[in-house]
Amino acid sequence: MRSKMLTVAIAAGLGLTSVTATVSAQTSNKKVSVSASELAQMKAEIAALEQKVQDLESQQQAAQQAQVETAQSVQATQAQVQATQKQVAAAQTHTGDILGGTGGVKWTFGGFLAAETAYRSRDTADDIATKFTAIPFMGGTSTAPINTSSGATTTYPVTNAKNNQFVYSARQSRLSIKAEGDINDSTHVTGYYETDFLGGAQTANMNESNSFNMRIRQLWTSIDWNDYGLHALAGQAWSLMTLDSVGITPGKEVLPPTIDAQYGAGFNWARQTQLRLVKDWDKKWWLGISVENPQTAGIGSTAGTGTKGYATTTATVGAGSLYDTLNSVSLNQIPDILVKFAADPGWGHYELFGISREFTTRVTPTTANGGPAGTSNQTAHGGGFGFGMLLPLVPKVLDLQVSGMSGKGIGRYGTSGLSDITYTTSGAPHPLKENMALGTLTWHASDDLDFYVEGGREQQDSYQTVGVNGLPLGYGAAALGYNNASCGIYGAATGCTGQNRSVKEQTFGFFWKFYQGKFGRVQFGTQFSHLSRQLFTDSKGNAPTASDNMFFTSIRYYPF
Question: Which intervals of the chain form a coiled coil (predicted)?
Fold first, then answer.
C-alpha cells in the first residue's frame, strides 16, 4: 500500500513538473515535448524507487521481528532466573532436614566469639560480669546487702579494697539458632535458642582447664497471627519490661551497649520463663501481658540489734531436684504479672509498663518475748510502674535511650540486685520501696564507629518498725544500730556494718567495626565505668561510699 502511494506521488510530481514545464514553455511561446526515451527513463526511475521502498519495508519488518524475539528471550531468561531462585530457596529451607528439622523451615545462625578483659581498681573477684553491690570498703566488716534468696550475709575481705584486679575472659562468647516457618501467608512460627558460657558450676575455675559451662540465655517459641495482630510467646526470654526498639517484639530488645555482661546500673530487666500474649493495631500501637517466673531475689533484715520474737521466719528453702544444693529457692505461690503498652507513632519508640508481685514467708513463732503460737504463711503484695523510650535525635547519627522504674519489691528487676523485701513484726514480708533509672546516648560517628555515654542509678528506702520485744526491726534505718564509723579506715576490724542504699554508675566507651565483609564482622571496643555504692546513714550520721574504677576491652568476631 505504501509503495503504491509513493509511486502515485512520484508520478504526480513528474506530471506536475511536465505541466509546469509546458505552461512555462507556452508562456514563453515555446513548445516543449517529452520523447519516448525520456519517458522510459522516468519509468525506470520510478521502478527503482519502488524497489527501494520495498527494501526499506523488509528491513523494518526484520527489525520488528528481532524486537519480538528479543522480548521473548528476556521473558525466557526471567523465567529461568525465577526458577533458579526457587531452587536456591528450597535448598536453603531444606537445610533444616540436615539438622533434624523439616522442609520449609528457615534456619538462621547468630552469635559471636569474644576475647575480653576487665580491670577493676578494687577487686570484686568477678569475671566479665560485675556484682555491683560487692565493692569492698577499706575497713570493718564490709557486708553486701543480702541479695540472694538464701538470706545469708556475705562478707568481703578488707584486703580487696587495696587490691586491683585483672582478668581475661572468653565466656561472653555466644551462639544463637533461630528456626522460622510459615503455616500460611499470615501465620508464622519462630523458635529461638541462645547460649553463652557464663554459667559457673562448682567445678568451674581458672586454675588450669577453665571448664566453664554453657548456659541458657533464651529458649522460646512464638507464633504470629498477622491477620488478627496477635502474637504469643512461651519459654525463657527477656522479660516483658525490657525495652524494645519496635513494638513488643522478641529479638528487638534494646540493651545497654556495654562490655560488662551485667549491663549498667539502673537498667531494668530479667530473662526468665514466661507466657506472653500481645495485640498490635497496624503495627503502631501494642498491648501485651505476660505471666513470668517469680523469685524473691533479695532479703534485707536488721543488722542484729533485736529479735522478732519468732523462732523462724524465712522466705526461702533449700534447693531441690535439678538445682545446685548450695543454692536456695524462694517461697512463691503465684507468678509475676506484667502488662506493657508500646507505641511507634512515627518518630521514636515509647513504652509504659506495670508489674504485680506477691511475696510469701513461712513463720514459726515462739512464745518467748510474747510471740504468738502456731505456724503460718504470711504474704504481701508488691509491684511498680516503669517507662522506656528510644529517640532518634538525629536519625542514623544520634540515639537516646531512657528507661526507669519505681515501686515496692522490685529489686530483683534492677541490674544491681538490691533487696526485694524485709520482715514486719509478725514475720510477714515487707516489700522495700525502690526506684531506678538509666540514660544512654549513642553517637554513630560512621558505619564503622559508635561512641556511647551512659549514666544510671538504683536506690531504695529504709523501713523501720518495732519487734514484739520492743527493739527496732526492719532494713536500713539509722535506729537499727548500724555502725559505719570505720568503713574508710583500712584494716579496721569493726565499724562497717551498714546496708546498701544506692548504686550509681557512669560509663563511656566505643566500638570500632574494623572489618565488615563477606567473612562476617570483627570489632574492637573499650569501656570505662565509675561505679559506687552507698550505705544507709548510721546513728552517727555516717553514710560512706565505696567506689570502683573499671576498664574493659573486647574483641569480637561475628561470623554470621
Answer: 32-69
- 22 CB-near residues (< 8 Å, 6+ apart): 32
Could you give the CA distance from residue 183 to residue 227 in angstroms, rounded to a whole number?
13
Taking the chain, what is the end-to-end CA distance rounded to the nearest angstrom?
68
Residue 557 scores a pLDDT above 50: yes
DSSP SS3 for 15: helix
How far does CA 318 lie from the centroid of its chain?
A: 33
**How far is the C-alpha of 464 from the C-alpha of 146, rounded, in Å?**
17
Nearest-5° Cα angle at 104, 99 to 105: 50
Closest residue by Cα to residue 190 from 285, 107, 296, 116: 107
Assign 237 a pLDDT band (cuts: 50, 70, 90).
very high
Give the Cα separation of 305 and 307 in Å (integer): 7
Q: What are phi and psi of 122, to 5 degrees?
A: -125, 125
Whole-number Å distance between alpha carbons of 527 and 554: 9
Of 13-17, 89-93, 141-145, give the range with the top mean pLDDT: 89-93
Residue with the three cell numbers 504468738: 372
Q: Is 518 exposed, middle or buried (0-12, 13-18, 19+ CB in 10 A)?
A: exposed
C-alpha distances in Å from residue 331, one per residue of 45, 323, 325, 335, 379: 113, 15, 16, 11, 10
CA 485 to chain centre: 43
**DSSP assignment of 430-495:** EEPEEEEEEEEEEEE-SSSEEEEEEEEEEEE--EEEE-TTSSEEEES-GGG----TTTTSTT-SS-
Residues 479 and 486: their CA atoms lie apart, in Å, by 18
Of all helices (H) and strands (E), which one includes residue 167?
strand 165-169
Asked if 105 contacts 98 with a C-beta cutoff of 8 angstroms, the reply is: no
- How many residues make up the chain in this entry? 560
Q: What is the distance between the alpha carbons of residues 268 and 414, in angstroms, rounded to a whole number?
A: 5
Grouping H, G, I as helix, E, B as strand and the rest as coil, residue 197 is strand
Residue with cell 504479672: 337
Point out which residues pair with 441 in neighbouring strands: 400, 453
pLDDT digits (tens, 9 = 90+) for 383-407: 999 999 999 999 999 999 999 999 9
Distance CA 251, CA 193 (A): 11
Q: How do beta strands 213-225 and 545-558 pair? A: unpaired
Evaluate if residue 112 carries a pLDDT over 80: yes
The model's pLDDT over 439-454, given as tens digits with 9 standing for 90+, comes to 999 999 999 999 999 9
C-alpha span between 170 and 198 (Å, rounded): 9
β-strands 545-558, 105-120: how paired?
antiparallel
Cα separation, 423 vs 262, in Å, equals 28
- Which among 131, 134, 130, 155 is positioned nearest to 143, based on CA atoms? 155
pTM: 0.79
Q: Is the pLDDT at 24 greater than 70, yes or no?
A: no
Grid cell 557486708 in the structure block, residue: 143
- Residues 6 or more apart from 164 whose CB is under 8 A from it? 119, 120, 121, 122, 123
Count Cα atoms within 13 angstroms, Cβ side, for 184.
4
